[in-house]
Specification:
301 residues, mainly alpha
């Protein structure tokens, strides 16, 4: 009677191994999520509702931040940047992915995927440094184009009115390539038989894209918009470097994250800085929740 029990125990141990291996792979991510995600979030929430003496202050830090004369302009700057950035991202990324998918099985296909992905290999700060060079008409390889628009100096190029478009261009150049590759992979998962049936029925490329490919890409587009919105609200590196390079022409309080930084390290008001961070977190969660709920993101196809 003991032999079957031994065999059964060995089988149970073998069957449980995949579960333990899965937990082992996930564990480092969970540790990093707790250390660099949950703990800083709790820390920020704590500071947002306390003062320098660690006494509970209610919403006073939030009202102090909202009463600052730079707060509403910073919201407007970020909102305008997000509008330009997200519209350009959705239209151009999806459009380029569809064009790239049309080049499948050609030599240009792999080359274009590689070229799209190269800018994404640069970190945000490095990307902004590249664009500091590109936006200076005196040294930029496209300086003749900038001068053709009447922009003869670096300060004229990065005037505050130009920043939403310039920052959206920098963000697109840095992050769009990776999303194009993601959308291309999603397009490859669409059944070739379905596309062939549509062609046999007389559908052209536009009809196929509109009635088949775009609906099947909907969840991927929503996923891209959610992450890009969250990243866009955290705008900091690009305007901060532009501000330093232009001696303040771009403004050191252009975005909400810059304003939060200024509260913490210039005004020594960590509570209001944390309050802005918590507000950005809440806005990101609410917008993500709305997109997920309205798009049926987790609905089974």
């Amino acid at each position: 009677m003991s032999a079957p029990s031994s065999v059964g125990g060995g089988r149970a141990r073998r069957l449980s191994w995949p579960g333990r291996a899965g937990h082992g792979f996930v564990a480092p991510y969970v540790v990093l999520l707790i250390a660099f995600g949950l703990v800083p979030t709790v820390y920020a929430i704590y500071f947002a509702f306390t003062d320098a003496n660690e006494r509970f202050t209610g919403l006073s830090n939030f009202t102090t931040a909202a009463a600052d004369f730079r707060f509403l302009p910073a919201i407007g700057h970020v909102a305008l940047y997000l509008l330009v950035w997200l519209v350009a991202l959705v239209v151009l990324v999806v459009g380029l992915a569809l064009l790239l998918h049309g080049l499948a099985a050609r030599a240009a296909d792999r080359a274009l995927r590689f070229l799209y992905y190269i800018p994404g290999a640069l970190a945000g700060a490095a990307s902004a440094m590249v664009w500091l060079f590109m936006l200076d008409p005196t040294v930029s390889p496209v300086g003749f184009l900038l001068r053709a628009f009447g922009l003869g100096t670096f300060g004229q190029v990065i005037a505050p009115g130009h920043l939403p478009i310039l920052l959206a261009v920098i963000a697109f150049w840095t992050g769009a390539g990776g999303w194009i590759v993601v959308m291309y992979g999603a397009l490859n998962n669409i059944s070739a038989d379905l596309l062939e049936a549509a062609r046999i029925d007389g559908a052209g490329p536009w009809q196929i894209a509109r009635h088949i490919q775009l609906p099947l890409l909907r969840k991927w587009i929503v996923y891209m918009v959610i992450l890009s919105f969250a990243a866009g609200t955290q705008l900091f590196v690009e305007p901060q470097l532009l501000s330093q390079a232009s001696n303040g022409v771009a403004g050191r309080d252009y975005s909400l994250n810059q304003l939060s930084y200024d509260f913490a390290f210039q005004n020594n008001n960590v509570g209001s800085a944390a309050a802005i961070s918590v507000e950005l977190l809440v806005v990101g969660l609410v917008v993500a929740g709305l997109f997920v709920a309205r798009s049926g993101f987790f609905d089974a196809d």
